[in-house]
Amino acid sequence: MKPERIAALVLRWAWLYTRNLPEPAGGDRVAEIEADLHDHIADARAAGAGDRHIAREIASRALRGAPADLSWRAQARARPTAKGAGMHRPARRSAVRVALVTAGVLAIPLTGMAVSDEVRWSAADFVFAAVLLAGTGALLELALRRPRNLVLRLAAVAIGVAAVALGEADDAPGLVLFGLLAIAAAVALTLRRRVRPDPRSG
Amino acid sequence: MPRRKPGTLLALESEILATALAMRRDGEPAFHGFALARRLKDERGSRSLTAHGTLYKALGRLEGFGLLTSRWEDGDVEGRPRRRLYELSGRGAETAERALAERRAKPSPHAATASRPVGRPA
Question: A121 lies in which domain range?
């Protein structure tokens, strides 16, 4: 068997055990193995070794190292990195933040209904407001975590503009205020990105 | 897989440091994975090269301990993939000196360990 064929299999194995690992750990490992395989074949051929011998040597190195590959993967998955540090925890925190703000804002009309006859919200009003608040909140949280994504910020501005227009037409000052806040938040995120450039860029 | 006592190096890690120091003395301060594997094989008089997983895991650990530094070759290298180049750090060179002294004192490199504290992985 040609050593290149075995090298391709070993590289496929490297792709497999580095799958879904935080970068740059996974990509670096694959690139390092690729360079090693190339150097191994070139060096052994230069020394006059036969293809079968080289292929056997490469296969042996890969097989003997497989347990270490797997334990390295387990450690790399557990290790927080600068980029991927606890990706799940911030996502959960974002969700909790959005839920708390949505509940807090919805508590205002609910309290108003309890103490005054002038505030009258239907269940549909609450659902509409909850979807609007939670949706926009999630969008802003995503925009915060992905500062290079302009679409997210533009979508927040679009929702804000729509809320202002709808609020004006419906004589709903709360909706207008919400729209203005959404626009302001999107602008603030853009300014924040300019002041503190994304470390991943450049 | 040998168990590590806190603050000690595994035999392979000591061996890598000692070999890296020897390579530096030979005028090769920066080395890549395969070159190291070949040198280890020559120095051991072994028939086989260190396995991929074992070698790169050990290199990663030594880098985590701050005993090695690494960088990727600059730009495109014609005809072959870019290599990751390792180098002994100042602390790594000191630890390597001790590892080398221990290896000289003990006939079998596989029995050697550098027992001084090496710090925790970064």
Answer: 88-195
Q: Is residue A164 part of a domain?
A: yes
Q: Is residue A200 part of a domain?
A: no
**Residue B39: which residues within 8 A CB-CB, separation 6 or more?**
B19, B22, B23, B31
Q: Quick one: pLDDT at residue A81?
A: 53
Q: What pTM does this model have?
A: 0.58
Determine, for residues B49 and A57 on separate chains, whether the beta-carbon distance falls below 8 Å.
yes
- Count of A–B CB contacts within 8 Å? 83
d(CA A68, CA B106): 27
Give the domain extent around B27.
Answer: 11-74+82-108
pLDDT number for residue B1: 53
Mean pLDDT, chain B, rounded, equals 84
Contact with chain B for residue A60, Cβ under 8 A? yes
- Looking at A116-149, list the stretches that DSSP marks H as alpha helix, in order from N- to C-terminal side: 123-145
User: Distance (Å, rounded) from C-alpha B106 to C-alpha B101?
Assistant: 9
Which residue among A29, A57, A78 closes a domain? A78
Between strands B68-72 and B84-88, the pairing is: antiparallel
Q: What phi and psi values does residue A146 have, to the nearest 5 degrees? A: -125, 75
Q: How many CA atoms lie within 13 A of A179 on its CB side?
A: 16
pLDDT score of A190 more than 80: no
Q: How many domains does chain B have?
A: 1
Q: Cβ contact (<8 Å) for A35 and B35?
A: no
**Nearest in space to B67 (alpha carbons), one of B39, B87, B52:** B87
* Whole-Å CA distances, B22 to A52, B15, B16, B60, B96: 32, 10, 10, 20, 9
Q: What is the pLDDT of residue B120?
A: 45
DSSP B31: B
